[in-house]
Design brief:
The protein is α/β, with parallel strands linked by helices and 234 residues long. It has 10 helices and 7 strands. It has a 7-stranded mixed beta sheet with strand order 3-2-1-4-5-7-6, with helices on both faces.
């Protein structure tokens, strides 16, 4: 199973494999009690969630040139991609962010159970993070959260200038990129890459990482509060 990760230019150590196996078992047991993802998706936990999360490696090998990296995962849900990333990349300080307490509590339990010192989950809405969090992350990720033109307003303000926002999307992402052009212009950012890959499943499985670079600082008024990001997208 894990050999399929070689398609992502990723070869796991024996320790990585053991940890991900234990995490998968723990996730399934926990999900029986607290619904984090659908029962149907649990059947494809590796293919749809762990493998998809670790597609991050396609971005990492190409764009990460420094040893120590600080990453914010917006809308972390049940810990994807943040938890698999924290297992594999010990040099990345991962901040999973979600407004739903039961999901953050799960990630806290994973942190304690597996002694993951490089992951520190926060229960909050992204627009409610303190001002000190802005322009402080090297990478922001988001997976299965919202339309790109909305997510960029949540993500870009928290990046350092020169940092990257990595959005996990379906292969039909081009329309979302077109719709996000105005938001990207306002937020002084641009799409620099679209990295395509396929999930190891039989059904429609095309995915991509949209890589967006922050070129200049943005006003501290972003992201807007009171639901304006969704009500009136840029």
């Amino acid at each position: 199973m894990y050999k399929q990760l070689e398609k992502l230019s990723l070869v796991l150590s024996e320790q990585n494999v053991n940890e991900l196996n234990l995490f998968s078992s723990f996730f399934k047991e926990y999900n029986d009690k607290v619904n984090l993802i659908s029962n149907n998706d649990v059947k494809f936990l590796f293919e749809k969630h762990i493998f998809d999360s670790l597609a991050f490696n396609l971005f990492y090998k190409k764009y990460c040139k420094t040893n120590q990296v600080k990453l914010l995962d917006i809308g972390a849900g049940g810990g994807f991609p943040s938890v698999p990333i924290s297992f594999i990349y010990e040099n990345i300080d991962v901040i999973p962010l979600d407004s739903i307490n039961k999901k953050i509590n799960f990630i806290k339990e994973v942190k304690e159970k597996f002694n993951l010192n490089n992951i520190n989950p926060i229960c909050s809405r992204v627009e409610d993070l303190p001002l000190s969090s802005k322009s402080s992350f090297d990478i922001v990720t988001s997976r299965a959260m919202a339309e790109l033109r909305m997510i960029v307003e949540y993500a870009i303000p928290y990046l350092k200038v020169g940092g990257y926002f990595v959005a996990y999307k379906s292969i039909k992402a081009q329309e979302e990129i077109e719709n996000a052009k105005n938001a990207l212009k306002i937020l002084n950012s641009k799409v620099v890459d679209i990295i395509e890959y396929s999930l190891p499943i039989d059904e429609e499985n095309k995915r991509c990482l949209i890589v967006i670079k922050k070129e200049k600082e943005v006003p501290f008024s972003y992201p807007r509060k009171n639901g304006l990001v969704k009500k009136k997208p840029l």
